[in-house]
Amino acid sequence: MNTVVTVKNLEKSYNTKKAVDKINFIVNAGEILGLLGPNGAGKSTTINILSTILSPDNGEITILGHDLKKDINLIKQEIGIVPQDIAIYEEISTEKNVRFFASLYNLKGDQLNNQVKEALELVGLYDKRYDKPKTFSGGMKRRLNIACAIAHKPKLIIMDEPTVGIDPQSRNHILESIKILKKSGITIIYSTHYMEEVEEISDRIIIMNEGKIIAEGTKEELKQKVNDETTYYFNLDNLNNLNDKQFYKIDGVTKVKILKNTLEITMENSKDNINEIISVITSNNCRIENMGSKKASLETVFLELTGRNLRD
Amino acid sequence: MKFIKIVTFDFMNIVRNPMLLIVNTLFPLILIGVMGFVMSSVFGGEGSMSFYDYYGIKMIIFTALLIAMTASNTFMEEKVKAGNTRIIYAPVSKTSIYLSKLISTYILGTISYSILIFILQYLFHLNFGGRNILYIILLINILCLFGCSLGTLFCCFFKCEEGANSTMQIPLFFFLFFGGVIFGVHRLGKFVAALTNLSPIKWVNECAIRIMYDNDFSIYRPVLAFLLIASIICIIACQIIFKPEEYV
After folding, report:
1. Do residue B5 and residue A81 have CB atoms under 8 angstroms apart?
2. Interface pTM (ipTM) of the complex?
3. How far is CA B100 from CA A86, B85, B111, B156, in A?
4. pLDDT tens, residue by residue, B168-183
5. Helices (H), ranges, A202-265
């Protein structure tokens, strides 16, 4: 598999604070790499460096075979950036926006016309091409923000939270557009706060915290990291007689939570003592109305690794 | 080629902004009309130089310097700043980014003030040097370039329109007040008279009056040279100060 981006020992500091601390990663051709991390994790700094607008303090970066230090314009020509803040002109028509930005990538004539049309069709704004973005909803503006980044047909697209603060319909549209881009062979780096988006579209995920990469892999690989335990929940008719100490006596139980109508017990996967738990429940004259288990999600992986929720 | 595209696009963005268009076209005309009318009514209008002539050149100088505000608007006004950000991601040099704003504003100023001066001399019969009108136009255009360079420099330095405009008002006020655009401040004493020499506007004003009424070109070249050198210094400072990542 070809490597589109190689990052080695990347470092960037602001005054004395290290925003990015010796990170290494690669992005393979045709994949969607999800970049996750709470605020201040170093995602935006990394993205700004890859977008060529921020110089790293140290490290080597190769994008599409070009050295970031030497060939900035060659890299810029082949990448598309979807910044977090919507970067469009509100007072001119949708088509003129896309046309102007695409023309900065040496497109002209029929090629320019066709690629502008394709970009607008992909994001579902072709019918609105004569409308000014100032009349658009937030979601439509975000879609135009993407169209402006893809009209020149970049080989690598870097998206920094492209769906922040928009309606579900527009979000779905954007996610579908991204899947279409991936199918056409484009490599995408996708930074977001929304775990469900990463789960839906990413082939691989990098989790950053405090300037470092703390985990990397496919979603299955990441879940495996915290999959040593399973949490069982029991909806009971009466929890008054239950005492958490009774459950802690069972081998493998690591956590017990007695909630209003629910009992939650976390147990090591290697010690499958579910029968003993049920015995304790029934011996206390409690009737199980419902029960189930919770698998590790990316949210729990993230919480486990960083000690923080993603939106903290 | 890309640079020309960006300049054209920036120019169209200025033209689409009614406020910027009015400030650089109708506003000088209104200013000259009002000042000329008010002063003529108060002091009378007899003599070789009417109040309309007097305020004609002064108000054109005034607005030509104030184009610095238009330059900062072209660069960082809320409505265009977001779109301008995307240019930073495109394969264009950082020089093209700030220089395109400067040049597009300068083109607007050049076209606008040249037409205005022609209209004022040949339609409203104000004195702009008679057959020396082209020298006056060149002088105003170079002053306009200085104004655009100053406005762009303040944007590069303060990174936002609000900060740039509010701070830029201080030197602009100094230049205009001590340049004697509203009234001859040199009459306020020797110290103030000495201060007026520090204002480039005083020399532009003096130069224009000498050409218009005495056919005297003795300070024409030095004034043009000063304005050009000051503009170049501003542009070099922009090149040093402007960092695209701070714009994002």
Report:
1. no
2. 0.84
3. 22, 13, 16, 13
4. 999 998 888 888 877 7
5. 219-225, 244-248
| d(C-alpha A55, C-alpha A45), whole Å | 10
B13/A85 CB distance under 8 A: no
- A213 three-state secondary structure: strand
Q: Following CA atoms A96, A102, A107, A111 in sequence, which dihedral angle do they give, to the nearest 10 degrees?
A: -70
Specify the length of chain A in residues. 312
A interface with B, Cβ–Cβ < 8 A, is 48, 51-55, 73-74, 76-77, 81, 83, 85-92, 97, 100-101, 103-106, 148-149
Burial class (CB in 10 A: 0-12, 13-18, 19+), B90: buried
Contact A116, A137 (CB under 8 A): no
Pick from A76, A85, A90: CB nearest B91:
A76
A102-132 residue pLDDT tens: 999 989 899 999 999 999 999 999 999 999 9
Residues 6+ apart with CB under 8 A from B109: B24, B64, B67, B70, B141, B144, B147, B148
Would the pLDDT of B247 be above 80? Answer: no
Q: What distance in Å separates the CA atoms of residue B74 and residue B152, rounded to the nearest whole number?
A: 9
Which residues on neighbouring strands pair with residue A293, listed in sequence order? A232
Per residue in A34-70, pLDDT (tens digit) is 998 888 889 989 999 999 988 899 999 999 999 998 8
Nearest by CB to A54, from B9, B91, B245: name it: B245
Interchain contact, A104 vs B82, CB within 8 Å: no
B19 reaches A (C-beta below 8 A): no
Predicted structure pTM score: 0.82
In chain A, which residue's Cα lies nearest the Cα of B18?
A91
